[in-house]
Design goal:
With about 325 residues, the protein is α+β, with helices and mostly antiparallel strands. Helices cover about 25% and strands about 40% of the residues. The strands form four sheets. A seven-stranded antiparallel β-sheet has the order 2-3-4-8-7-6-5, with helices on both faces.
């Protein structure tokens, strides 16, 4: 039997190391507190702004949104060509995919507004969870090729429940003063719903509600455009209608620009009279928005509590 040379042994060992590294690299990576994971495209890293991955230099991002398992049919059936076109996406392909034990729908297309680029939508489900994964690359294929993004999307995996405490701890901001409110649900890794009362599902604002969300986009420049932006954000809220603004103020607090609106409205489904407080804290390239909802007869009790929560926000951008 011939002796194995040191050169051959070294080459074999090196090949084994590469094989192990490749196997490890193929394991899905889960962002903090996310039940959705994937093998991200090369040089994409876990985002500090939202649940997912991004490469800002290549103008590319992949975002994750978690929903109940029964949401799959509604989401998938709603992603028609006409609906996507209204949202600024021209569909180029659509296919049913099987990802291990999960079934899903993968749609590819081009973005026509508000920015030009390429976009992919993947909806997958298992018995516990529906996952919506949105990938977009601005500009041309010098960012990422279509094949690189599709390969990453087809590596998507779902895992078991993550505790609410872990989800809250992974948000891109901290709430120093909860003012008696408790977190109920984290959405998309950048938003959290608080309430005060025994119920986790709130109808007709039977309990006060407080929603905090960090932006995925830069804010408008200082001045009148921020006032207009704040008003448009409030009126875009589909939970409320018949909005009548009582006050709308811009101010400085803790070295940051803020805009706050207090308004009367009605809860859209029930017609219940409510009061809304919206506070937006503007950073240089990000913002955090708080929307508090309370029944009209509880306004004096809850508006100061909403204000305490907003004042205590610390961002982790």
């Amino acid at each position: 039997m011939k002796a194995i040379s040191m050169k051959t042994l070294a080459a074999t060992a090196f090949g084994l190391i590469l094989s192990v590294q490749a196997a490890l690299a193929a394991e899905p990576l889960f962002p903090p507190a996310s039940r959705i994971g994937m093998v991200p495209p090369q040089e994409m890293t876990v985002s500090k702004r939202f649940s997912g991955f991004e490469n800002q230099e290549r103008a590319a991002a992949i975002t994750f949104t978690e929903m109940p398992p029964q949401a799959y049919d509604q989401i998938a059936s709603g992603l028609t060509k006409q609906a996507l076109k209204r949202q600024g996406m021209e569909e180029t392909s659509r296919e049913t995919v099987q990802l291990g034990a999960m079934s899903g729908l993968l749609i590819s297309g081009t973005m026509t507004k508000p920015e030009i680029g390429r976009k992919w939508l993947l909806v997958v489900k298992d018995k516990d969870l529906t996952g919506l994964v949105v990938a977009q690359v601005l500009g041309g294929k010098d960012g990422y090729s279509d094949a690189q993004i599709v390969d990453a999307l087809k590596s998507v995996a779902l895992r078991r429940d993550v505790s609410l405490e872990e989800q809250v701890s992974a948000l891109p901001f901290r709430v120093g003063e909860k003012a008696g409110f408790r977190p109920v649900r984290v959405i998309a890794g950048n938003s959290v719903l608080f309430t005060d009362g025994p119920k986790d599902t709130i109808k007709a604002v039977e309990q006060p509600m407080l929603i905090l969300a960090a932006s995925l986009q830069p804010p408008p420049p200082p001045g009148e455009r921020r006032t207009r932006f704040a008003r448009e954000a409030l009126f875009a809220n589909q939970v409320i209608k018949n909005i009548r603004i009582e006050r709308s103020d811009s101010f400085r607090l803790k070295g940051q620009d803020w805009h706050e609106i207090v308004a009367r409205a009605t809860e859209a489904e029930s017609g219940q009279p409510i009061v809304v407080m919206q506070s937006i804290r503007f950073e240089n390239d990000r913002y955090v928005r708080m929307v508090g909802l309370t029944r009209q007869e509880q306004r004096d009790q809850n508006l100061p509590r909403f204000r305490k929560v907003a004042d205590s926000i610390e961002t982790n951008f």
